[in-house]
Structure formats: structure tokens, C-alpha cells
Description:
This protein is mostly helical. It is 57% helix and 2% strand. The chain has a two-stranded antiparallel ribbon. A hairpin with a 3-residue loop joins strand 1 and strand 2 (114-115). Helix 2 packs across helix 3 (75-97). It is globular and about 55 Å long.
Amino acid sequence: MGKCYGNMRRFLSLTVPIVTLTEILSLPELEGKLLNEAKTHGFVTAMAAAPHLLPPNEWLAFLWGGDETAPFTEGAQLENYAEQIVEIWNSARPALLSNAWAWPENCALDEEEIVNEAARDFCEGFLQGWQLARDDWETLMPEDSEDSALLGGVLLSISMLYDPETSIATLAEQGIEGLEQFTEIFNAIPTMICGLTIRGSLLADQQ
């Protein structure tokens, strides 16, 4: 069902030592210039879930705000960063297609905040990434189709976790109280995103 697009390193030519994404993001000269780690994972997961392959050179710049000029002070930094991003994609895509994807380890429920900051940031990054593939999704899953409900359900669920305070207020206006639904949504997100990815891949292959 669908195809995994293989190793995305073919889009890059890397010859420099690898450091971790955490180390890159902690460099003082890059502070505030790149999406943080959780938002990055969310954004790249959205790219990995996209129904049509979007090579990194088409979206990498959005991780630093879309500017043509990257914020890195030297080429090796950019190459190391790009390698880390591709590794996230290479891990996420087959996991999504095999219904094995899971939340990043630092994303969790929170008794006081409903979900922790990392989970919110992941959701924010995912929603940002989805915008880049929006046309592809809406072409494959038009508003009047059954698949549109699947797409809408995933986006609504992620939006609720990104901004749970607003969601709670909206639900309260409808007479719905309690936080149990957020636990259910959080636990269901992996299955929902995997199902959406698998369905999108199948529809793309049928075109």
C-alpha cells in the first residue's frame, strides 16, 4: 500500500561530521532563528505524511522562516542540520506507512496544562508543515468526499492539542465538560496520522 520513497539522502551530498539536532539548535549564533526541536519534528512529520513526495530542498527553508538566506554561519552547519532533518523524515515515513509511528518521547500529557509544551510545539509544527502540502491533500480528499472527514478529523484533533484552552472554552459553550477527551485524542493521534498517511499514499498511487 503506497510506497516509501527510499532514502532521502539522494537529495543531499553530505561529507561533514554529524552532530545532533539538539546540539545544532543550542548554538548561540542560531538562537531563535530555527524552529525548536519539537516544532521541527512536527513539521517534518507533516512532510513525511504528505501524499506526494516533497524533497527537502522545497521546504527546508521554512524551518528558518522561509528566508532565502539560511541563518548558519558556515556551510558545515547547514549540511549537518539538513542531515538531521532528513534522518527525521527517513524515520517517520516508513513508520507512518506501517502504522508504527509514535509521539516523540518528550511529548506527553500534563495534568495541569493538558499536554506539555513539547506536545503543543509538535502540533504547531505539524500544522505549519501541513500548509505546504495542503493543496495536495485537498485535491486527493476534496471537501465533499468521505476522505475529507478523515483529513478534517486529524487536523481538528491536532489543533485542539495545540490550543487546548480555546478548545475547552468552545466545548464548554456546547455544554461539554471534562478533560477526558483530550487524553483520548492524544492517545489516538498516532493511529490517526498513520491512517491518514496510508490513505493519502494509496490515493496518490491511484492517480
